[in-house]
Amino acid sequence: MELFEFAADALTRLVAIDGGFFIYRKRGIETGAEPQAPALYHVFGAFADCAEMAPIEALVKEDLTLGVPLERWMLVEDVPHEALRAWLESQSVLEFGVWPLYSREEIRGAVVVARTRPVMHLTWETSHALMEACAAQISLALDMIMALRVAEHASQRDLLTGAWNRLGIERRWPRVLDRLRGDPRRYAILGILDVDHFKQINDTYGHPFGDRVLRLVAQTLRDQTTPDELVGRIGGDEFIVVAWTDAPDWRPRLFDMQNEIDSRLNGACGVSVGGSVLGLDGDTFDDCYTIADERLYENKRLRKQNFENPVG
């Protein structure tokens, strides 16, 4: 993170830090996202050339703040954790300190700093105050970065259904291409689903009922897809799915989704579908979307025809 690089430079210049690193546990913002394990960031100064950070990485997994008293300088011989003390001694550290990083009143990481030689031009009080101020400013900056990420994430979600909007789908499209390159035996399909006669539903039953229909469609699509597949709402009654299949055919997956939605709507209405296969029907999002849209309206025409002229 550039923030940690900037902070390391400030600590080196203002607090006479010889070396250090940052510990941080990134916060997931997507629903269902697994919490990320804490990790080391921007090892700098005297520690930058250290080839053996494994002992520290192991300690971080046990305790975000390395299991030492916080917000104070201590001589290496006073470090209570034996493995940490041995590692610091191997780096010729004289004194050492850990200042926590907070987010929403919860410790999310730490600033870990060390000196390899005595510092005469800073009093203990000044050094301590500078470290507290630096940790507080980093914490504030991390919260601001998180707020921006949350806002950006929200801008890619449909508020009514919780599905991705078109921007959210397009932002994640490169991941689809990357996965295809990594596993060429699989196929990516782009599907479009459109609620039949949706205007008539709103006019007949009211918009709250129409909203419930849209939420049910979105939930059904989520139930019919895996976490690494995409479900989006890209128009008033139009949904999009990006899913994986082992065969170059969009029909089985999308027709299964169509049948499940029709079943859950219990005759109140239904959905028409159309799809395309990335790499066969088009090489870009726009190409695949255009083909899927054409097939959607063909499916809609056939469903209307079958409804108006039922067999038998």
From TrEMBL:
Q: Which GO terms describe its molecular function?
A: diguanylate cyclase activity
Q: Which segments constitute the GGDEF domain?
A: 186-312
Q: Entry's Gene3D superfamilies?
A: 3.30.70.270
- Transmembrane stretches, start-end: none
Which named protein is this?
A: Diguanylate cyclase (GGDEF) domain-containing protein
Pull one GO CC term from this UniProt entry.
Answer: plasma membrane
Organism for this UniProt entry: Alicyclobacillus vulcanalis
InterPro entries, alphabetically?
Answer: Diguanylate_Cyclase, GGDEF_dom, Nucleotide_cyclase, Rev_trsase/Diguanyl_cyclase
Q: Which GO terms describe its biological process?
A: cell adhesion involved in single-species biofilm formation; negative regulation of bacterial-type flagellum-dependent cell motility
The record's Pfam families line, in alphabetical order, gives:
GGDEF
